Amino acid sequence: GDNLPVLRALTRTQGKKIKLIYIDPPYNTGANDFHYPDKLERSAWLNFMQQRLEACKPLLAEDGAIIVQCDDNEQAYLK
Question: pLDDT by residue (tens digit) across 24-42?
Answer without folding.
Answer: 887 776 666 656 666 778 8
